[in-house]
């Protein structure tokens, strides 16, 4: 099930695992497995990827990073199929992603004997990339009657949906705000006018989707397999400069 009406769907380069995610969700639809179980499964995949990096099993690393991306899509697919959307799942997914991203980059720093400062700079850049993509994507979904579990402004703790506990939502929202708040604020200040955008063309969203987590993990996996792990950190620092390019293009489109 798509997050957008048909006419507003675009080729999401970070969402290459979606077809496999739908198969997994269909298979689990009538079982006791919940979206939370799938989220926990992708956390395990992320940890296994880290172990593989430490042991220089780079093909296995790429496999687990891609599998993580597939499962990252499957939890949402299963939630929509079972009609059980939840803020618990939404925030658990995001919190798990950011912590795994940090651990993966720290692991790459460890095996390359690189700069810890540059590693944190790359992490900061990766998070800003993902935040810009999600910012535009959520705006698009909210404008065109798409999935609304994610909100443009995550400023207040939402009310728990049917089937979830408010206490869990409160805890996970607090963690989300702590980990993501600074990135959300930076992106909003860089492009606050995007909220009023009348036009976010499909081609534009496709290009910006290279900032999505799935694409980022794919790049890391490919670079590890190619034996150029020393360039992963510098690549993401340099690629972050496109944030300003994409914002400029967005403004030109909506002049």
TrEMBL record:
GO molecular function, one term: phosphotransferase activity, for other substituted phosphate groups
Name of the protein described by the UniProt record: CDP-alcohol phosphatidyltransferase family protein
Biological process per Gene Ontology, one example term: phospholipid biosynthetic process
TM spans (from-to): 36-59, 98-126, 169-188, 200-225, 231-249
Swiss-Prot/TrEMBL keywords: Membrane, Transferase, Transmembrane, Transmembrane helix
Homology family: Belongs to the CDP-alcohol phosphatidyltransferase class-I family.
PROSITE patterns: CDP_ALCOHOL_P_TRANSF (PS00379)
InterPro entries, per the entry: CDP-OH_P_trans, CDP-OH_PTrfase_TM_dom, CDP_ALCOHOL_P_TRANSF_CS
Gene Ontology CC terms, in alphabetical order: membrane
Organism: Pelagihabitans pacificus
């Amino acid at each position: 099930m798509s997050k957008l009406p048909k006419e507003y769907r675009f080729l999401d380069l970070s969402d290459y695992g979606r077809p496999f995610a739908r198969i997994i969700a269909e298979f689990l639809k009538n079982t006791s497995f919940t979206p939370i179980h799938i989220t926990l499964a992708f956390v395990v995949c992320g940890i296994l990827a880290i172990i593989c990096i430490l042991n220089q099993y780079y093909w296995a690393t790429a496999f687990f990073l891609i599998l993580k991306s597939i499962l990252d899509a499957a939890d949402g697919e299963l939630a929509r199929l079972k009609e059980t959307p939840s803020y618990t799942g939404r925030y658990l997914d995001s919190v798990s992603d950011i912590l795994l991203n940090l651990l993966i980059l720290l692991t790459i720093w460890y095996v390359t004997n690189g700069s810890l400062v540059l590693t944190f700079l790359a992490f900061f850049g990766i998070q800003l990339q993902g935040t810009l993509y999600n910012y535009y994507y959520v705006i698009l979904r909210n404008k065109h009657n798409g999935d609304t579990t994610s909100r443009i402004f995550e400023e207040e703790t939402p009310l728990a949906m049917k089937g979830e506990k408010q206490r869990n939502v409160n805890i996970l929202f607090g963690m989300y705000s702590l980990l993501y708040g600074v990135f959300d604020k930076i992106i909003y200040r860089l492009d606050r006018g995007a909220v009023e955008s009348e036009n976010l063309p499909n081609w534009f969203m496709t290009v910006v989707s290279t900032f999505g987590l799935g694409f980022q993990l794919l790049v890391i996996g490919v670079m590890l397999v190619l034996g150029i792990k020393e360039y992963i950190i510098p690549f993401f620092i340099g690629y972050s400069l496109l944030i300003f390019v994409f914002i400029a293009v967005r403004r030109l489109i909506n002049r």
